[in-house]
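Re: that chain you flagged

S.,

Sorry for the slow reply, it's been a week of failed gels. I finally had a moment to sit down with the sequence you sent. For the record, here it is as I used it:
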Amino acid sequence: NYIFNLKWDTFMHPLNYIFRRISCVSELAQKVQLKEGSISDYLFHLTVIHHVCVHLILGGQSHKRRRTSEPVEIEDRLESLICRVGEKSTSSLESNLEGLAGVLEADLPNYKNKILRILCAVARLLPEKLTVYTTLVGLLNARNYNFGGEFVEAMIRQLKETLKANLYTEALYLVRFLCDLVNCHVIAAPSMVAMFENFVSVTQEEDVPQVRSDWFVYAVLSSLPWVGKELDEKKDVEMDRLLNQIDGYLKRRLKTHVPMLQVWTAEKPHPQEEYLDCLYAQIQKLKKDRWQERHILRPYIAFDSVLCEALQHNLPPFTPPAHMPDCQYPMPRVIFRMFDYTDAPEGPVMPGSHSVERFVIEDNLHNIIKSHWKERKSCAAQLLSYPGKNKIPLNYHIVEVIFGELFQLPCPPHIDVMYTTLLIELCKLQPGSLPQVLAQATEMMYVRLDTMNTICIDRLLNWFSHHLSNFQFRWSWDDWVDCLALDADKPKPKFVKEVLEKCMRLSYHQRIVDIVPPTFSGLIPADPIFFYKYQDEANSALPGYAVAIAVGNAIKNRASNEEILTVLKDVPNPNQEDDDDEGEGFNPLKIEVFLQTLLHLAAKSFSHSFSALAKFHEILKALTDCDEGKLHILRVVYEVWKNHPQMVSVLVDKLIRTQIVDCAAVANWLFSPSMAHEFTRFYVWEILHSTIRKMNKHVQKIQKELEEAKDKLERQQHKKVGSRRNSEDEDGQLEEQIERLQEKVESAQSEQKNLFLVIFQRFIMMLTEHLVRCETGSVDFSTPWYKNCIERLQQIFLMHHVTIQQYMGTLENLLFTAELDHHILAVYQQFCALQL
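Prediction finished late last night. Pasting the structure tokens below so you have them in one place:
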């Protein structure tokens, strides 16, 4: 049947290849019970083969013309066959596997290396079909013992390479694949146990990060649902000793990092467990249940009579690669829990949080997303066609896994918008059931907003507003009327207000007014109008009013920059005593008059505003040649667009890009007293993180240029072509370029370090003042503002952890010292624990 399902051009190969196919078809025809009507298909393919054979024998020149591309064509066909096995088919998986094993066995003499490479690749890249491929390898090993040995050796080599390359997720899949080969009688159980013992021995190493030991323990525990029963039956004493060693490690392991990674601070209704603790509890329950699980597809059981006769291989001794300073181990995680069996009242029961079935289902769903995330339609289809979906409440599992990834700290595995589009696609494919589960999940998260991490609230409101925009902004707002009775600083009213603000970005103000009930009017965003204080003649007494009118006319009449600067000379300077030379020094009124007038004339759209800033870039640079000027230009942007946070965000972004203001100025402005009332607003942190990312990209860009220049110089020094003089001249030029770039890198890194110092210093000052004020007044310090502020500090550490780690010594010496309040210092210690 497997051969019958192939396109007839599969058989368009050289004569010897054709004869192997004929024998393969004949063998399969005898083994597989033919379905009704398949005899004609069989005779048809034999006729085609006969026709092709005659054509190849007699074709002569045609055969020669095809010969050059023939090996490539066959290799591509082999890759397609291997990658597609296990997909939906009219034939059973077992018959497809047996057919493919026959095809591959026939091709081993000529294409062994290609087949080895493909099988090693799918073991690493297609974990959702792990047991399908282990069964295939088992069948090949039963037919060709030497190939089985070569495959095991290739897998061990690949495992070592992935570990050295810091590809720990792929390494995990390879370990699990090797484990399942024990079930297929390819690898002997004692050698697998020995490998596990070497993994667990890492926990005894000294002066290594805890995350290194965590990964090797996780690799062992996460493989046991597949192979635990087989190993326990054959090596029960060794397995007990292994689990006891793991138990001892978990008890002495530090968990300082856990509070920073939890989505919810409350343990009810679902405890947010650390990932190793949760997995160990699941394995303990699995062991108690005699290693019985019901959700792993095990196609090799159908071939037990064949596989049990096969000779097994011993794994070569495997020593985990030594720890190196450049090793980047996966960060620890906290397991996200949102549902239990009480939340899915109808249909199959959801497995408990400590049942291994919960781990297996979630792991498989994560793997499907990882393999298909770039194509939302196929990803949604694959999730909904999950094997065994009738035995579990699949929609609840899918929604929980997707939100678990979206809320994963420090950052989701994929870009945020992917999860939005995936959930939309799932709602389209399952309109009768999945939207209800999604609405239930949204309601549950709204109810628990008080204890939800602020970073996750940001992601939730981004997802929710984007999702609503795809469904005409329809929502049962009356169900959330309870938020109207709460203080505006509480999480629920803040969340609703920010969601409506974000929805307005995706629509327009009047649309939001129309869709929200009148009772929510207090939370509806203000009309995004421009505030121009020189527009009304009633304000003609304001200082600078006459100059503002003159500047507006000059801009309309296309005056030159010099002419406009001449007009601005008439602006009185409130800081006159500090201004020694006319036209020089910081004049806040001059900035207000020019920038308010310019932005007022360009207020029609983003594009108009961008063009205005670009056209008068020279004037703006002249007006902001000092730190006070840069701060004041940001204040003016906020004053005129305070009802339009999106415009403020994009204009600040443009000012940084055009180098009118620098990153440190933006940080100082956001933490300034004038912005204190906006401190907990979503857009403020959107601006700050965008600013940090720009600084980081700037440093990375210069570092890349420096590395490229160094590589070019090294290549030139190895070349012996051309005259010595020309070579020396070029080397000299490159060396000068490298020196300049080195200076730019050092300057940029200094600026980057200063930015983080400014941000952390402001956080410490604000939090310390709050704690002292509360202690003096004998009031509880844990206010909504404090929760927001301390979690924003955590967010800075988490979102930019790679960069911040470069400056840990400076931060510890200057800011996060032992004298600091322990509430603030705890955040820094949690961050340090992530890589200990």
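What I noticed first: The chain is about 65% helix and 0% strand.

Talk soon,
D.
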